[in-house]
Amino acid sequence: MAQAKKAASIWDVARLAGVSHQTVSRVVNGSPRVAAATRDKVLEAITELGYRPNRLARSLAGGAVESVTVLTADISLYGPEAALRGIEKAARALDWSVQISVLDPADTHSDADIIARLPRAGEPTIIMAHDEPGMRAKQVLLDTQPQAMVAIGPYTAEELAASPWLVGMDDGKAAAEATRYLLDLGHTTVHHLAIPTSTGTFGGGRAHRAEGWARVLREAGRPVPEPVPSGWTIAEAFKAVQPLVADPEVTAILCGNDHLALATMRAAHLAGRSVPGDLSIVGFDNTPFSAYTTPALTTVNQDFESVGRGAFELLRHRVDSSIPRPVPGWPEPELIVRETSGPPAEH
Amino acid sequence: MAQAKKAASIWDVARLAGVSHQTVSRVVNGSPRVAAATRDKVLEAITELGYRPNRLARSLAGGAVESVTVLTADISLYGPEAALRGIEKAARALDWSVQISVLDPADTHSDADIIARLPRAGEPTIIMAHDEPGMRAKQVLLDTQPQAMVAIGPYTAEELAASPWLVGMDDGKAAAEATRYLLDLGHTTVHHLAIPTSTGTFGGGRAHRAEGWARVLREAGRPVPEPVPSGWTIAEAFKAVQPLVADPEVTAILCGNDHLALATMRAAHLAGRSVPGDLSIVGFDNTPFSAYTTPALTTVNQDFESVGRGAFELLRHRVDSSIPRPVPGWPEPELIVRETSGPPAEH
DNA sequence: ATCAATGAGGTGAACGTTCACACGAGGCGG
DNA sequence: CCGCCTCGTGTGAACGTTCACCTCATTGAT
After folding, report:
1. pTM of the full predicted structure?
2. How far apart (Å, rounded) are the C-alpha atoms in residues A139 and A202?
3. Strand, helix or coil at A63?
4. Is the pLDDT of residue A308 over 90?
């Protein structure tokens, strides 16, 4: 019955080593101003007692901030999940800790509830602002502690330039590129199965992918069909896309992400329409599975992991201005043509 | 330029409300022994100053522990991701915070590095022990702070009963069920594309899915082919499975998870083998996309989210013995027959 | 009228760190 | 030989809470 005896503190180590608590602190933090002999004594005491520093006490006492909280609505979505991975990697490299807090979309939490999630006032925070709960959290933190927050989301180049707390990729442009590609293939127009927008009570949230798609169609003088709204899940997408695959006039569908695209492929198959013969399908995000569907999915690659890393770097800069502002260096979204897209069938 | 003035503390509120700091604490924590008038004064001061409690200070001062750290090697894997979701939901319902720390498989971190990840000694921790780094972390924590840790992993009923810190599902049994199903369909034997095992320097880690599969074959007196080892990624699986799909003798493959199964479907397609006509494929985990592949994947459903929730409940019980031990109540793994499995082709 | 019980609130220490400073011992230049 | 700088180390106060205990009214029963 290993009794859970209290963990050793810096004072216990100090007593055992015959030095002051401050000297122990210096050793632990690698200060140069401590004699080699003393250091050894302290180190020995540390291993003997199994001492490990308490990070809570460290931050409380005003030591350097070494934690970041990620606010997101859904870690099962590929984008947020990959970005989280990037944040975590970058944080780990610097020995920062990562805390995640999931925003419940169904929940009617007040603004106070959102900030109550943070471990303390001024906690460095990264928000995945791709949907309504995220946009809302973004606004709350922008009002509360703008200097210690960064938001990740899809944004145009202008928005990015105007908001120093913003990190993201211009996926409107990427959607435009994909749409243009489909038109060039000979399709009269392109339909759009859309992910939920972040519009709502809070300004700034828009459907960038849908906008890029619509812009290209307008510029090309093509009819702009009403985008078909879908939820985030494959099941919802499968239901939503039915009218589209049933309509023989529809020859090309740009999907808001790869999961929606998979649902579309499935629906097309069940409706007896061949892909890409009768129907071209383009996804978004280059989710790992997309290269292995049959036929393999044409999609738009996005390096979310790098964006996550960039968000972390930017946050460090914003929290501590002595750290230089990072220059965003991740690749632009890029169309990856695989097997689900091709010229429309001859009439 | 909203100067980041220091956040209000409990003392500031006390001063403004004309009471002691302790009274503020009582109000914040909803103690009944405070007069209504006083409470109102305090609440007013709180909103006026925008006070929010500092969770770090709270835990430091010996308040109830309200955070849990999750140690995992890979959040992009469906199992850990879903379990994490379950943990997070359960934690959120109780206003606990969740911290995640990713174990780098490539990293040669020492045992000390692993526990250095924890915010403090005795931090309640849940470990995803499905692979080598996870098993290792499990062992370290078991040695260090057994009373404040819980591990999630695939285990047999006996192992579960023997280890009070263990939560999981018997996926060996599920693999057995799937194998039996394929044999009953008429296949002479079943091949296995295996996920990495957790065996290695640390005992206890085994390949439960592979064991369940092999056991059924032996019991049925069928040849037990060498399992084909694959990495976790789809790309690795695609490479690993090539010899299997190229071999016309192989008529049924049980895959270690749905991603491996997808790779197998793709490889089979490219090798000109029809599914399920020439080759039956069964996956594992019932990953969301699996119902929407073409053909739809036969797989084994596992309710990882419930397991995550169960792990959290068990952890609470272990940290605070006044909380009753939860009874594991999640559904057993269950075979879901869809379209990738069928009787072997006639010779 | 007295006394115990109860309700409302205050006081001081503790949690485990870091920060700002103070202090003595050598070394070195003048 | 004196003053000053640097090195190594110690002292005490903070950080923002909670905990354990104390005090002072008020109440109600005896």
Report:
1. 0.93
2. 8
3. coil
4. yes
Could you give the CA distance from residue B168 to residue B86 in angstroms, rounded to a whole number? 13
Rg of chain A on CA atoms, in Å = 26
Residue A283 has pLDDT above 60, yes or no: yes
Residues 27-46/A with CB within 7 Å of nucleic chain D are 32-35, 37-39
Domains and CATH numbers, chain B: 10-61 (1.10.260.40), 67-170+304-319 (3.40.50.2300), 171-302 (3.40.50.2300)
CA distance B275 to A167: 44
pLDDT at B200 over 60: no
Q: Using the beta-carbon criterion (under 8 Å), do A293 and B266 form an inter-chain contact?
A: yes
**How many angstroms away from the CA of B266 is the closest CA of chain A?**
6
Q: Give the residue from A275, A195, A271, A265 showing the smallest Cα distance to A236.
A: A195
Per-residue HEC secondary structure of chain B comes to: CCCCCCCCCHHHHHHHHCCCHHHHHHHHCCCCCCCHHHHHHHHHHHHHHCCCCCHHHHHHCCCCCCEEEEEECCCCCHHHHHHHHHHHHHHHHCCCEEEEEECCCCCCCCHHHHHHCCCCCCCCEEEECCCHHHHHHHHHHHHHCHHHEEEECCCCHHHHHHCCCEECCCHHHHHHHHHHHHHHCCCCCCEEEECCCCCCCCCCCCCHHHHHHHHHHHHCCCCCCCCEECCCCHHHHHHHCHHHHHCCCCCEEEECCHHHHHHHHHHHHHCCCCCCCCCEEECCECCHHHHHCCCCCEEEECCHHHHHHHHHHHHHHHHCCCCCCCCCCCCCCEEECCCCCCCCCCC
* Residues B75-83, mean pLDDT to the nearest whole number: 94
Tell me which chain A residue has its CA closest to the CA of residue B57: A60
For the stretch A22-52, pLDDT in tens is: 999 999 999 888 999 999 999 999 999 999 9
Please list, in sequence order, all residues whose beta carbon lies within 8 angstroms of the beta carbon of residue B54, skipping any fewer than 6 positions away. A60, A119, A120, A121, B7, B9
B190-201 mean pLDDT: 79
Q: From CA A325, how far away is CA A161, in angstroms rounded?
A: 13
Q: What are the residues whose beta carbons fall under 8 Å from the beta carbon of B74, sequence distance 6 or more?
A: B80, B102, B105, B131, B232
Tell me the shortest Cα–Cα distance from B201 to chain A, in angstroms.
24
**Residue B293 contacts A where some CB pair is shorter than 8 Å:** yes
Residue A207: the pLDDT is: 76
| Per-residue tokens: B254 | 């049980």
Peptide bond into B295 cis (omega under 30): yes
